[in-house]
Amino acid sequence: MVDGKVARLNIDGANTAIELPMYSGSEGPDVIDVGKLTAQGYFTYDPGFVSTASCDSEITYIDGDAGVLLHRGYPIEQLAEQSDFLELCYLLLNGELPDATGKAAFVDTIRHHTMVHEQLCAFFGGFRRDAHPMAIMCGVVGALSAFYHDSLDIDDADHRRITAHRLIAKMPTLAAMSYKYSQGQPFVYPRNDLDYAENFLYMMFATPCDDYDVNPVIARAMDRIFLLHADHEQNASTSTVRLAGSTGANPFACIAAGIAALWGPSHGGANEAVLNMLAEIGDEKNIDKFVAKAKDKDDPFRLMGFGHRVYKNYDPRAKVMQQTCHEVLSELGVKDNPTLRMAQRLEKIALEDDYFVDRKLYPNVDFYSGIILKAIGIPVEMFTVIFATGRTPGWIAHWNEMISGTYRIGRPRQLYKGPGKRNYVTVEQR
Predict the structure, then answer these.
(1) Nearest CA-CA partner of 275 in 380, 179, 385, 377
(2) Domain-wise residue ranges, the chain
(3) pLDDT tens string 116-140
(4) Phi first, then psi: what are they for 48, rounded to 5°?
């Protein structure tokens, strides 16, 4: 509570104000507890829950106005420059960075759990070959509870830990399998001598006919993409995982629900939307025309990958991704690719044009990650799958945080605007 502070809600016609307790977090604005309003005959109305805290959490803090993103208190810029994805996974799950021994043990655990049950290979055969990889991921991740039902007691901390390790370890394998299946290629098994990002790239691009030598610059870029997408507070997919988890559903089902929510173009599909937009522009010579369309308030066209719902300043993840993007393009020598040239021209406009600068429509993480993935050779339909792989530790950390504490089943209310009570009329009388 904030030093005994309360908010008082005065309602026309009521004799007394309703007192609502206020609480303070370690960072960010104070909150008003409206939980007791129902007993007074009222609900709050907050479409999209943009002004509602659905839970308390110790995992991630965002200040969108200042462009701040902290994981367990650590700035994302420091983590991206000095840490790696698996160390961040450990941090999200455990609350503190590991020492050298703890990190080595965690990495070893993940490395030795990357294989999936062999019967899952047959499970893939139930999907059409032309199925979207995200559709496959929704299905196979949800089905994991049928293959790993030995540790599904959500009240057992050891079971939750085992499941977290399994999900983090197996998601790149399932992601690569989804891609291979859609291409009609044989699955490639993971290798224990490769690190997390290297293994994913290997399983994506190696074949029985040709080995695949992982470029360290590309592997580092992939690791950063995973890291920068690891968690982002109570976004749509994370909230979905928490809501599903509040029913007592098994963790694999909850993560599958998160994957389904992530699939939307306004969420995880944003980097895919960037490449689709570039395809619509078609040629560098058309950029000025499309920029003019974006500035026209009467034109429905939008430039995808610019601005962010949360960040009203520069997305701190985008700064790191920008550097990584230029490293990758330089390493691969693909700066002359027409699509990538268009992207770079749009980036320059967004950073220099007064219209975009004044409105803080800076390139966001989706803009740069889409360009990187395109340059690496990953098809557009796999972009959201990679996002889901990176976001898995955040989802499971939030799920575990909720299950470990006191929680209630989620039950949002509504403002009903349909017909009032009316009597049924038989079909002959209608």
Answers:
(1) 380
(2) 6-53, 74-206+236-267
(3) 999 999 999 999 999 999 999 999 9
(4) 80, 0
With 90 as the cut, is the pLDDT of residue 185 above it? yes
Indicate the pTM of the whole model.
Answer: 0.90
- Decide if 6-53 and 74-206+236-267 have a common fold: no
Q: Catalytic residue numbers? A: 267, 308, 366
**What does pLDDT average to over the chain?**
91
Top pLDDT among 193 and 210 is at 193
Q: What is the pLDDT of residues 317-351, one digit of tens each?
A: 888 888 898 899 889 887 677 877 888 888 888 88
The CATH fold of domain 74-206+236-267: Citrate Synthase; domain 1 (1.10.580)
6-53 is classed CATH 2.40.40.20: no
